[in-house]
Amino acid sequence: MLFFNFCHNVISFFLKTFQSNELFEGKNTKLMKDKKLEANLSMVASRVMAGLNMNGLKFLLPLWLGALTGVTVRCVFAAVAFWITSWFVKEAPVTRRQRIGLFCLGAFGLYGFMFCYLLGISKTTPVSSAIFNSMQPIWVFLISVFFLHEKATLMKIIGIALGFGGALLCILTQGSDDLAHDAFTGNMLCMVSSLVFAVYLIVSKKLLEEVGVVTMMKYIFGGAAVTGLIVSSIIGWDAPLLTDALHGKWHWVPWAVLAFVLVFPTYLSYFLVPVGLKYLKTTVVAMYSYLILVVTTVVSLTLGQDRFSWTQAAAIAMICISVYFVEVAEAKK
């Protein structure tokens, strides 16, 4: 009962936040500083939940839930949650073209990210998956250079080289073991997922200029849910946790972990990301992926989901330095 009361209070707070013109529609420049503070705090909360999400998923996959079934469960839950939320939030109506665009972004972009992400983390360790997740700022910059005509400076090129060097170090040196039964494939999938999510961030920021947050998320997750249901219907369902429950066998710890993953990293975390996208640069939002890396690393080593590795430490250092060159050092000019 306490858990449900807590969730109710948290969701009520965010509903009031999104209904407030001061946060999303206010144009008073005097409030911009406060909005940016709220945006940064929202990203901190979102990325902490996302970091814990990796540990939760590693616990669930594949013993209690198949990776692709896990994607479908998360997408369907979030779609239902955001559609219910939309009943209580009044936002401007969207056109048919906008609905189709949002649906397609979810069906291919968000689902593609979760597909690669969950399949990857089921094969590698949480820390390795977080290392590749932290490459999002590099992908955002590369996309901006090739498609948005952003200038590529020497420092940024050096940063990109360091980032990919760190990724290659992790890919080529991590072997498969009892904690990562197919590390190479898992790492490659996690790297692809970080690229897909970078594209998702860029497109989402553009769409936020035209539609409301809740409207955007309900159609995006609606598209992802449809794709997930189609894929799971073709490939088949793999959910021992749900199967056992249907036969009267309840495993309360896995169910508690699944509830956490669905409510916090899947619903609330995605609820908060648009706050950051609204008032922060896409590259800044992407840089918060480093908080995921910190949280995941600490929790993984504490729970025994990963072992400390000097190659992982070197890869983390190289990627962190790369982002310094790509963003921070360039901003000081």
TrEMBL record:
It is a multi-pass membrane protein. SUPFAM superfamilies: Multidrug resistance efflux transporter EmrE (SSF103481). Pfam families: EamA. One of its GO terms (cellular component) is plasma membrane. InterPro entries: AA-Vitamin_Transporters, EamA_dom, EmrE-like. The keyword Transcription regulation does not apply. It comes from the Bacteria. It is found in: Cell membrane. Residues 42-170, 185-326 form the EamA domain. Gene3D superfamilies: 1.10.3730.20. The chain crosses the membrane at residues 63-88, 100-121, 127-147, 154-174, 186-204, 216-237, 252-273, 285-304, 310-329. Keywords: Cell membrane, Membrane, Transmembrane, Transmembrane helix. Its main location: membrane. This is Membrane protein. It comes from Bacteroides uniformis (strain ATCC 8492 / DSM 6597 / CCUG 4942 / CIP 103695 / JCM 5828 / KCTC 5204 / NCTC 13054 / VPI 0061).
